[in-house]
Design brief:
2 domains; about 25% strand
Length: about 100
């Protein structure tokens, strides 16, 4: 019996559930990253996320520790970090930054 060590997927396979299932079987999942289209916004990969410290930093040098547990689109509990609207308002790309709630 052949052993699969790498699985190639498309964007439909890129969510956590599929990746976790593949990795649980001892294989690596490779999926092409989508093209970033955040016109005028900081793209999410530019943010520094430190879950151990419970902090997220933005490319402009601001940070937040305001973490909240919410349900994602599949009903799973996830942590969301929120930046204060007043902090984002001082940043030039703030009106088009990653969405936040007040």
């Amino acid at each position: 019996m052949d052993v699969v060590d790498t699985v190639l997927g498309d964007m439909a396979d890129s969510e956590g559930d599929a990746r976790e299932a593949v990795e649980a079987e001892g294989a690596e999942m490779v999926v092409k990253a989508p093209t970033m289209t955040n016109v005028g916004r900081f793209p999410r990969p530019d943010f520094t996320i430190d879950t151990g410290a419970g902090m997220v930093g933005c490319p402009a040098g601001n940070a937040t520790c305001d973490a909240r547990k919410v349900n994602d689109h599949k009903g799973r509990r996830v942590t969301v970090y929120r930046f204060d609207a007043a902090t984002c308002a001082t940043c030039p790309p703030s009106t088009e930054d990653v969405p936040h709630e007040n």
